[in-house]
Amino acid sequence: MLLEGTVNPPSNISFSDGAEPRLLAGKTAELMVSGLHGNLYTATYRGFMYHGYLTTASAIPVTSTTSPTMILWNPYGSGINCVLVHYCLGWKAGTNVEGNVQLAVLPSVGDTIKDGAPITAFTAGVTMNGMIGLGTVQKSKFGSAATVTAATRFLPLGLNIMVMDTAKATPVSLMYDFNGTVILPEGTAVFDVSSAATTATYQRRLSWYEFPV
Fold this sequence. Notes:
Elements: E1 5-7, E2 23-25, H1 41-45, E3 49-53, E4 71-74, E5 80-93, E6 100-106, E7 119-124, E8 126-129, E9 141-148, E10 153-160, E11 173-177, E12 183-184, E13 188-194, E14 201-212
Parallel strand pairs: 1-2
Antiparallel strand pairs: 3-8, 3-14, 4-9, 4-13, 5-11, 5-12, 5-14, 6-10, 6-13, 7-9
């Protein structure tokens, strides 16, 4: 198979689906396959990207909690996998303690909220499609509060909440890039926790994209 490109500047038009344009090459005949957009441009453009966030800053619960304050749930029957992209937090107010942020994992949580189930209460949170004003309707569930069974599996995110001078109350923002390394199949849920209880509050966001199983 012969692979050819045409030396030209990047196109200033958006091609329709099904079009067969010639591949673009640079001035030294290098094939232009990346760099024009971010890695997740297509997933976002197609409406698969979602951002769940808290409208009110809250404390990150300790690992033993059964009351997460930010949770992502991919119920059975959704037909999609949730691919985690970013987790972000920014200090709002209060005193920190030594500890680190982790991702609590709940397998086999089904698709039903009821007594005796792994999830017995769930308050829907706010989400935004990455394609602002457009995009597909999400099939996962994002919550700002829930009652769940305590998690026994945790993924440390390498985010130390004691990275600010508490005496000066210097604010700091932190982000973890999953880079496609964590996928929530149907019937699983995750929520953020801290290894130590703290009264400090944070603005937080979890980003993911959904893709058919």
